[in-house]
Design a protein that fits this description.
homodimer, Rossmann fold, N-(1-d-carboxylethyl)-l-norvaline Dehydrogenase, domain 2, five-stranded antiparallel sheet, 18 helices, 13 strands
Chain lengths: 493, 493
């Protein structure tokens, strides 16, 4: 019987990445990997993924799924609705694993291969249920990059691809249906063309490994986080778009720039040179350090794209809305957020404006609970903070799990007086408190005026509900003058 | 005589991009472009660039340079130390322009071509001062992407390339010296390989224009903002790095994935299809809209990479440090910042925590003036804000030029009581005030203790200097209870 777990065959870079994405989405994982160090390697991938997810989103994550290692293919597959094969790129090995998995699968199980270029028709040829098989090709690191190429073979059922698209969208990915079965699918064909030319440039002594990378990452590579060549060149074509671009630059394609003919011979000497230049490029940084740098940058880039709701950032935003929906039933005070690394200042603590951000977001959540949405703001009015008082008691650090508890100290139909306590999980007391006076401003007149309709009713209800709560000790404070300081300063001066 | 202006020959997408980068770096530009609509097109590029720069950095920008149109090549070149030719990619046209420019140039003038692939030796063959000529190939949009490929021809002097590297670094770019003269340099060889495969995929009906773009921007394209193929594949190789990757995936290069042989024939039918699919991809968005989307995303991506000090973000950070150094001589109160678009909340105003950020940054600037640097913080101590009071009076909007004026209300050797007024240029009064109490905390004990040495002296001096200033009306406020609100709320409930 299906138990909601995902079965994974192979736990290397790609299989481990799948495990991390599923576990951090709250989905249990059963994994089959006969390699002796499989558990250790997976631990490393998971540590990296947890670190990245801790920074990726402030939406509340579900409790992490459970990971179990199993000794056989059927044990990984039995009861799973989703199975991924991520073995090395050897056709026979994959075919054999897939055949055993398909034989052990339930009537609803979808079976995917992570191959980066083998044809699905070839892989599904000898298995029991080829109609429920497809290629689902992800990109490294699987827990951060949203793309998954879906390619069905001759025997793949249409419903399989439909269900697969839905499933991957649900775990924050962007499923891209490859409409024609083709070696290398789409992305790897493009990347292979680039890679071959990158090899020639180094082989011919035109550039070093580092120079080739720099030629992309300081220029067109930044654009590529956002758009592919077609949109890029359309924009370059100006108002007349693609047609103009092709007229202007099409002929240049006939110039024999790139090496079209072949791959450089991978002699020992050439490989040695690549390895040496690669060592020079990383200047002693270990793979773990490089992976952290990569993940931190990818998180920052995804967050940047999310602010613009474009590409992979739009995928992230959709996934977060799903998480927020899941968390909707919890009380506001229980919503936990993780302090991201970029909130830290030169003192090693969270920078002061972020304490106010935590409080202000809690105010926004309170207002949302009163029914303040885009429609009300557009048609009727909104609440504005006119005064704020913050007390700093302790410090928050990167990775802290933070909750904000909110109390309404008073108010009427025009005013709300609220008080927040910002607290890290496990801390004795609050790290900070924030007190706010909010006024309701009428949309039409732009002047202070009473809240209307349900917002008004809910606000007055909440004020009444909280009226009997004890008044926090730090409410109503002001900053006292530093007595006598001016005189003493004058003496010292 | 050299007058510090830059001379530009051609003001299209690339020439206009150069103009924008220079003007916004405070450098005057003289431009020669005989096209009848040159001025209008340049206005459009400049409007886009100003908008992007307004969001790119909070460092104080120098006053914008002056743009003048001239009627002849010599008028653009005379007096300029730097000249860029950015004419269409026709060899004879470029050669003729460069010859006229070189003849009119001064003894120190560097002459660059923006060609994306023509050989510098060919372009410099007939000019008067070939030793001061090189290719400087930028990437669109020139005002945002830092990469500029530098390629010298047979007659180019080594000093020319040295001076060019220094010059481009000074305007926030990343100069990449191309060590071998080669058609297409580095970036365009790589991009052409990708582009040719992108054309085949659409030509063969494997994917649409939009699907090709999606195959990059949701996956490997995000990585490429950060690293090229060599570092990517090294990391994929795990602890054994590049050598392991080549052993594992080298053989796959022999599979005939990409189209190696030729370019698809650019028939009318194929061009029609590309244009139609491109139209579908952009869903009615105009080029201006697409350019804005692109620039907003690039700004956000550059800012994201800056938080990690990687790639193009490291270039941005270096440029900003230069700007801050230029601004060092100004008083703190005069430092002006531009409100970026991502500070805006659902009400259309700057979100409340950013007012505190403006104030807190002004506090940091004050502390820096007292001599609080990394060394003092490490060895002696630091100031921490313990209490904050904010009054909101008006609202700030995206693009506002904001100054923060700071007054020290009092203090002693352990305490600083400061008051900030946050004001938009042209506004009658402050948008917000922020009052803070800071305590000096000893690094060793972690407890409140007196400031030491010069920091103590400067703090006491500043307290004394400000002692006679009038006390701001909003200092010392507290949030008053909303009187009678609870009773009224109960009645309503």
């Amino acid at each position: 019987m299906a138990d909601g777990a995902v079965g994974l065959l192979g736990g290397g870079v790609i299989g481990g990445g799948w495990a991390a994405r599923y576990l951090l989405n709250g989905i249990d994982v059963r994994i089959y990997d006969p390699a002796p160090d499989a558990a250790r390697r997976l631990d490393d991938v998971l540590a990296g993924a947890r670190r990245a997810f801790g920074r990726l989103t402030l939406a509340p994550l579900p409790p992490e799924g459970t990971l179990s290692f199993v000794d056989t293919v059927p044990a990984a597959v039995a009861g799973a609705l989703i199975v991924h094969e991520s073995a090395p790129e050897r056709v026979e090995l994959k075919q054999e694993l897939l055949a055993r998995a398909s034989a052990a699968s339930g009537p609803e199980t979808l079976l995917f291969s992570s191959t980066s270029g083998l044809l699905p028709s070839q892989l599904q040829a000898g298995i029991d249920h080829p109609e429920r098989f497809a290629v689902a090709h992800p990109f490294n690191p699987v827990y951060l990059l949203p793309l998954v190429e879906l390619s069905g073979g001759e025997l793949t059922g249409g419903q399989t691809l439909e269900r697969a698209s839905e499933w991957f969208a649900g775990i924050g990915m962007h499923p891209l249906r490859v409409r024609v079965e083709i070696d290398g699918f789409l992305a790897d064909r493009l990347l292979e063309a680039l890679w071959r030319e990158a090899l020639w440039l180094v082989h011919d002594g035109v550039a070093t490994v580092a120079e080739v990378d720099d030629a992309l990452r300081y220029g067109a590579g930044v654009r590529m986080a956002l758009m592919g060549p077609y949109l890029t060149y359309r924009i370059a074509g100006g108002e007349q778009g693609m047609r103009h671009f092709m007229a202007q630059f099409g002929p240049a394609l006939k110039w024999p720039w790139t090496k079209l003919t072949d791959v450089p011979e991978l002699t020992d000497e050439f490989i040695d040179r690549l390895a040496a230049e690669s060592d020079e490029q990383v200047q002693g940084r270990s793979t773990v350090e490089l992976e952290r740098m990569r993940d931190d940058c990818l998180v920052a880039l995804l967050q940047a794209l999310r602010t613009q709701d474009q590409g992979a950032g739009a995928t992230l935003a959709r996934w977060e809305r799903g998480l927020m929906g899941l968390a909707g039933a919890q009380s506001l005070a229980a919503t936990e957020r993780i302090v991201p690394a970029e909130w830290i200042d030169y003192n090693g603590h969270v920078t002061e404006s972020r304490y106010l951000q935590l409080a202000a977001d809690a105010t926004d959540a309170l207002l949302a609970r009163l029914g303040l949405g885009p429609e009300y703001i557009e048609s009727t009015g909104s609440y504005y903070t006119v005064e704020t008082h913050i007390c700093h008691i302790g410090a928050l650090h990167a990775g802290d799990h933070v909750t904000v508890a909110t109390q309404v100290l008073g108010g009427d139909e025009k005013r709300l007086h609220v008080f927040h306590e910002v607290k890290a999980r496990g801390a004795d007391g609050p790290a900070a408190t924030a007190e706010h006076l909010l006024l309701h401003v009428d949309a039409a007149s732009g002047r202070v005026g009473p809240a209307q309709g349900e917002v008004r009713e809910r606000a007055l209800e909440l004020i009444a509900e909280h009226a009997d709560l004890a008044r926090p000790a730090r409410a109503g404070r002001r900053i006292e003058p530093v007595s006598g300081s001016v005189d003493r300063a004058r003496d010292a001066g």
